[in-house]
Each structure stands twice: as C-alpha cells, then as structure tokens.
C-alpha cells in the first residue's frame, strides 16, 4: 500500500493490482511528452492562430474589449491511455498539442472557446475542446485581463472626480490618472484599488467591488474606508456604471450622493494620519530589537552540497535516490507531476495542484463578498523570480518558465522553479542501544534529507509556496505554505466580530484557506480498489487472567475489496484525517477525500472560469461523484482537500509568516516493501564499541567520506525580478 496522510489515520485508499512489467526508469526523451511548451512552441501556436482569418484575432493589450483575442496557451497533456501505451508498451509517441483559450468578444453572442492546436512544433489544425456535459463558456465567466483593468481604472478616475476633495482631506491621497509610485518619497500621492470576486451574485453578472487603498509599499494594508461597486458587464466601457459605494460604515447610491453628504457636513470622515517617511508598518524595513541582542546582521545557517548534487535533472525528468518523475508548471493552475516512480515502479500517474480557495467574512461589502478561487487569477502564471538564499538555497538548481497568459507572446519568468536537497534537521531514523550500565551496544543513524521541488504563486496579496518533497524511504509530501499580505479591510467597530484590529484603521478579516489536489495513483497497472480502515476499540476478557478486562485498539476495514498482500499483488493506501472545518461551497472542497473513476473528460476539479461564475461552474465536481460507478478494480483518482482557518492578528504585519501556516499530505508506502527502502542509502553511520563495557575503542562504519568538507561560499546575492 501507499498511504496519503494528512494528520492522523482515518481512511485508507488501498490499491490492489497485479504485477506489471519489470520496473524501469524512463529516459528523458520519453517523459518529455509531459514537458511544458517551449517559447518556440508557444510562438508557433500563437502565429498559427493569428494567421487564421476566420478567427479574426486581435492583439490582447490593444483596442476594445469587443474583439477576439488569444488569452492562454499551454500544453494539452496526452490522453492517459496513449501516454501509458507509449511509456509501458512501446506504442507510438503521442503527438504534442497545445490548449488555447480564445475570448470571442467581437461576436454577436460573445463566448470563450478552448481549442486543441497541433501537432507541435508546427501546428496545422485546431479543433474545439468540450467540457463535460457539452456546455459553452459564458463570456462573463472569463478571467480578468490587463486591458479590462486599464479600462476599469479609467472608469474609476471618472467616478472618483467628485470625491477627490474628500479623499485628499481624509487620506492625503487622491485617485488620479497617470503614473504613480509606491515609494513614499517619490511621485504623486495616488490611490489604487484591489478588486473582489466573485463578480456579482448570480451567473451572467460582472459587478465588482473595488477596495480603494493608498498606493504605498504593501498597499493591501492601506484601505481608506471607501469601497465601490462597478457594473462592467457591457463590452463598451461607456455603459459601465457605479452602482453602490460604501464609506466608513455607510452605503451610498452614487459618488454624487457621497460628495453631497461630505459637503453638507453629515458625513463622518475617517481621517488617516500621513504615512511615515521610513519604517512604514507594511514594509520589510527592520525596526525594533530582540531582547537577547544575539546577532542578526550576519548570515545564518545555509544549505550546502559539499560533494556536489545527489539528484539529477535531465529536461523535465527529475531523479533522486529511488525516485523519478516528470514535472511541468501549468500557467492555469501550477505544478503538475507525471509518471511518479520509486525504484522504477510507477506510484502515481499524476499528482497536481488543482485549486486554492480563500473564503472571507466581514462587515464591509467587499469583505463579505470575497471568495477567492485562485485558478481564476492565473495561479500558475504568477511564478515570479525565486530569490537565491531566501526562497531557495543558493545551491539550488533554478529553472525558468515561459507563460503565454494574457500576453501577446511568451513571457519568460526567470528562476520560476527551484530544486534542492534539504537537510530536514532530524534523522530519517536512529537508535541508541544502551547496555544500561553506562555504555552501549551500538548507535546507528541515517541523516534526514529530502529533495524539494518548489515554485511560488503570488496571487496579488497572497504568496503561496508550493512544495513537493521526496524522501529516501519512499515517502512523498505535498505541502503549501501561505505567506504574503493578508486581505484586509477598513476597520469599523461592527467589523470586530469578523477578525482582528491589526492596525488603527485596519481589520484583518478571518478566512479559510482550502487547497485541492489530484492524486491519480497507479500501482503496477490501473486496476485499483478503495477501502477505509477505521481505528476501533474493543473491551474483551483477558485470556491469561480470568476476571480481568483488556481495552485495546483494532483496525476495521470497510468498503472496497479485501486487502491483498500476496507477492502477486501490490496494496497501496491513503490515510486521510479530516478536521472539523467548515463546509464551503465550491463542491470539490466539501470533501476532504473523494475517490472517483478516471475519465478523460474529468481532467481537473476546477477551471479558470469558476472564480467569475461559481454559481453555474463549467466543471461540476459533484457530477464526478453522481456517476455512482463501481470503484473496485478500476482506474481510480483521489481528490484531496487540505486547509486551515486563518484569524489574522497583529503578528501578520507586515506579512503572514510561514510557521503554522502550512498544510499538505503524504504518500507513504504501507506493506509495499519488505523493509524500509532507505536501507539502500549509503549515508548511515554505525558505531560499535570494540571493548564493551568500557567503550574506549570504537568502530565507526560509514560509506561516505569521513568529513563533508567546507561549504563553498556562493557568489554575492543578486536579483533581477523582471519577466
């Protein structure tokens, strides 16, 4: 078995499969079928589609909204059966295709259509892709674009004109057109905005609450107490309208009504102090002192590789100890692993991030409306440069990524992914065998290390750090850390029940983070079965002491098939511990663990359209479950939800810190091997006394050099940050 565990054991996904072909590690050219599109392939797809006269495509960043434009291009992975036929049976290599998303805004009935484009590298055809159920994508469900934001900014400049006197008096800033700087000592004092989603209250709407903020470093923490509802459904911005405003606890029907209240003296104005020139609370500038006065102006502990790398990266094939896998970074949703193997035997066909959701509560209209679904914000495309020595160790291997997401060509994101071996700081295993007389029989230990595959997603205020960790004992961990700026709103006394007052005019709104993963386990084939194992207790008579009782735990299996552990079968499992968290609305996140049959028309549990139309989602995860299909001896997929409640507090200023704000799950072997597979490592140390019990002479056995040697000092810190 292989276990997927979140906290404590509760449910196990057991895979029972007949043995397959002899385990082997595929060569890099084979797993390249899963590699992301290169910059050249992205350009080729765009050029091909732009050349098709019937599509009537225009550049993305120019012209009106009422046009046809290419929004997204990324790899369309091969169908699983074709990939397995190629990887395992010597079948033909699947052709490479791209997934292209086109906004058809220049039509009488605007819509969004997805296409398969291929074959690569020189495409010659395109064909529509269909969602399960055959539904089309409403145009109002499309993600936001830079062009729409630019037009929204222009509308807000117009709408805020009657309010600039109020805003100057209350905040020292105003909403202006043109270039502004977040640096306090530079440029004009401008306001900016953050937009809230979902955009409305029903399918077909596109009404967005905008939170106005002072444009300072960390502007997310500088709301001014004004929130504006704009209806921008129409493709002609001249028809856009401000429908409502909220200022310092009161609602207004128009900017003019708010301005009149201010001019008549009936408005309670929220005066904000001018920001300091240095050590702004939302900045990273050092301030204060530690009581111990231990040094912080020198470098702390670092990761080093004294004898070089112990992993191998060839193209998109990553190998480490017994592990091998192919990886890619989807522009739409982030990291995706394929063909995950241990000692040549497939553990999973796919393990991937599906969605990250944050549900908020609050007293302001923006706060109570906020239900972020980050795949709708290009969660996989905002993978900005990783800083050496901070985001990843200096010795890490860094990989660039290319995205074509709301752009007129591929954009290179330098150092978007990093790979490194991490000392865990705790032994993988160890034992001191005492003789209970002041000496010992032996000591043995194996240092703890894991290979980390990492990227980040900066989705406006929040930064997600996405990790997959590979351990030498056959354990894989998926983990996400949440950091960055909290989503905060203007403080009013009525808001206290929805969070914490973290600064004088700032409320940190409570919210729940939920992250969804797809885990397509395949063990020696695709014949999988499901069962749960429950921990129960029994109260029985003591068989060796009549009249006494014994209370003890035992394991009870439910559902699926009986566990098969004969040499001809490979049982794997998933242990999942649900907490008592909320029961949120998008359906995938209602289930801590759901198991379904694999279907090609169910590749993901969410979509880039769910954010702006969560009421009638294009991908209905509930339909995956309503099939009522048997899940015995079938190709199964586990869908895993992890999450945590975040009640912001003053210590979240300036940013939420990573300790205590990480969640994930483990894939663990369970009676799959005859012993811990990490015994194949040559890194243990065994110490035996040669003269017990005095223990003055020791035999030290190790299979690595006696000393790791000095760490090589890396080059000085550099950072570019452009993409």
Characterization of this structure:
This is Amine oxidase. Its EC number is 1.4.3.-. GO terms for molecular function: copper ion binding; diamine oxidase activity; primary methylamine oxidase activity; quinone binding. The chain has 723 residues and is mainly beta. Among the domains are: 31-129, Nuclear Transport Factor 2, Chain: A; 146-264, Nuclear Transport Factor 2, Chain: A (Roll), CATH 3.10.450; 313-424 and 482-536 and 570-677, Beta-galactosidase, Chain A, domain 5 (Distorted Sandwich). 10% of the residues lie in helices and 35% in strands. It contains eight helices and 36 strands. Strands 1, 2, 3, 4, 5, 6, 7, 19, 20, 23, 24, 25 and 34 form a 13-stranded mixed sheet that branches. Strands 13, 14, 15, 16, 17, 18, 29, 32 and 33 form a nine-stranded antiparallel sheet that branches. The chain has a five-stranded antiparallel sheet with strand order 8-9-10-11-12. Residues 6-13, 15-21, 560-570 and 572-585 have low confidence and may be disordered.
Instruction: Label the CATH architecture of the domain at 313-424 and 482-536 and 570-677.
Output: Distorted Sandwich
Output the CATH homologous superfamily of the domain at 313-424 and 482-536 and 570-677.
Copper amine oxidase, catalytic domain
Q: How many β-strand stretches?
A: 36
Radius of gyration: 28 Å
Bin the helical content. Answer: under 10%
Give the class from helix and strand content and strand pairing: mainly beta
| CATH topology tier name of the domain at 313-424 and 482-536 and 570-677 | Beta-galactosidase, Chain A, domain 5
Rounded mean pLDDT is 90
Apparent shape:
globular
N-end to C-end Cα span: 43 Å
Beta-strand percentage range: 35-45%
Major sheet: 13 strands, mixed
CATH class of the domain at 313-424 and 482-536 and 570-677: Mainly Beta
Output the number of helix runs.
8
Low-pLDDT regions: 6-13, 15-21, 560-570, 572-585
């Amino acid at each position: 078995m292989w276990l997927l565990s979140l906290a404590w054991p509760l449910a196990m996904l057991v895979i029972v499969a007949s043995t397959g072909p002899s385990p082997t590690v595929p060569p890099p050219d084979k797993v390249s079928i899963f590699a992301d599109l290169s910059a050249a392939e992205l350009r080729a797809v765009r050029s091909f589609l732009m050349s098709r006269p019937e599509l009537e495509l225009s550049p993305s960043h120019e012209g009106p909204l009422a046009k046809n434009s290419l929004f997204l291009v990324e790899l369309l992975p091969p169908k699983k059966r074709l990939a397995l036929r190629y990887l395992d049976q010597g079948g033909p290599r699947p052709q490479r295709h791209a997934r292209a998303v086109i906004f058809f805004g220049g039509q009488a009935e605007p819509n969004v259509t997805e296409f398969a484009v291929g074959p690569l590298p020189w495409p010659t055809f395109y064909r529509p892709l269909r969602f399960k159920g055959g539904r089309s994508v409403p145009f109002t469900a499309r993600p936001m674009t830079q062009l729409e934001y630019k037009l929204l900014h222009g509308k807000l400049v117009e709408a805020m004109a009657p309010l600039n006197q109020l805003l100057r008096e209350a905040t020292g800033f105003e909403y202006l057109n043109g270039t502004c700087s977040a640096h306090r000592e530079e440029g004009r004092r401008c306001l900016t905005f953050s937009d809230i989603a979902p955009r409305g209250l029903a399918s077909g709407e596109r009404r967005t609450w905008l939170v106005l903020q002072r444009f300072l470093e960390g502007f997310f923490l500088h709301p001014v107490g004004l929130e504006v509802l704009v209806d921008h459904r129409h493709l002609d911005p001249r028809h856009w309208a401000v429908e409502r405003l909220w200022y310092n606890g009161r609602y207004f029907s128009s900017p003019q009504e708010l301005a009149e209240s201010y001019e008549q003296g009936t408005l309670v104005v929220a005066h904000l102090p001018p920001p300091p020139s240095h050590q702004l609370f939302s900045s990273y500038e050092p301030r204060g002192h530690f009581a111990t006065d231990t040094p912080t102006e020198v470098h702390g502990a670092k990761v080093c590789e004294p004898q070089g790398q112990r992993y191998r990266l060839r193209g998109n094939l990553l190998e480490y100890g017994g592990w091998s896998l192919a990886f890619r970074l989807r522009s739409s949703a982030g990291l995706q692993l394929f063909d995950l193997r241990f000692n040549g035997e497939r553990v999973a066909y796919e393990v991937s991030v599906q969605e990250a959701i944050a549900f908020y509560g609050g007293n302001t209209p923006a706060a109570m409306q906020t239900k972020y679904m980050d795949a709708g914000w290009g969660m996989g495309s905002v993978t900005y440069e990783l800083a050496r020595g901070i985001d990843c160790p200096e010795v890490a291997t860094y990989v660039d990524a290319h995205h074509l997401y709301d752009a007129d060509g591929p954009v290179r994101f330098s150092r978007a992914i990093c790979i490194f071996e991490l000392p865990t700081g705790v032994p993988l295993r160890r034992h001191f065998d005492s003789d209970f007389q002041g000496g010992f029989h032996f000591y043995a230990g194996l240092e703890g290390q894991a290979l980390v595959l990492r990227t980040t997603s900066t989705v406006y205020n929040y930064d997600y750090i996405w990790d997959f960790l590979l351990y030498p004992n056959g354990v894989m961990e998926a983990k996400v850390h949440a950091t960055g700026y909290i989503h905060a709103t203007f403080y009013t006394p009525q808001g206290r029940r929805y969070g914490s007052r973290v600064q004088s005019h700032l409320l940190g709104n409570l919210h729940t983070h939920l992250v969804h993963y797809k885990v397509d386990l395949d063990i020696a084939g695709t014949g999988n079965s499901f069962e749960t194992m429950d921990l129960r207790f029994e109260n029985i008579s003591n068989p060796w002491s009549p009249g006494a009782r014994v209370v003890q735990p035992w394991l009870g299996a439910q559902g699926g098939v009986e566990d098969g552990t004969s040499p001809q079968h490979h049982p794997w499992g998933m242990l999942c511990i649900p907490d008592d968290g909320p029961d949120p609305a998008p359906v995938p996140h209602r289930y801590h663990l759901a198991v379904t049959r694999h279907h090609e028309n169910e590749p993901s549990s969410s979509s880039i359209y769910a954010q702006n139309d969560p009421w009638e989602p294009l991908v209905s995860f509930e339909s995956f479950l309503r099939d009522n299909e048997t899940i015995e001896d079938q190709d199964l997929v586990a869908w895993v939800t992890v999450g945590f409640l975040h009640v912001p507090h003053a210590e979240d200023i300036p940013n939420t810190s990573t300790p205590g704000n990480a969640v994930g799950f483990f894939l663990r072997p369970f009676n799959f091997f005859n012993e811990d597979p990490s015994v194949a490592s040559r890194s243990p140390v065994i110490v035996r006394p040669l003269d017990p019990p005095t223990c003055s002479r020791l035999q030290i056995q190790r299979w690595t050099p006696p000393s790791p040697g000095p760490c090589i000092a890396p080059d000085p810190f550099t950072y570019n940050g452009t993409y």
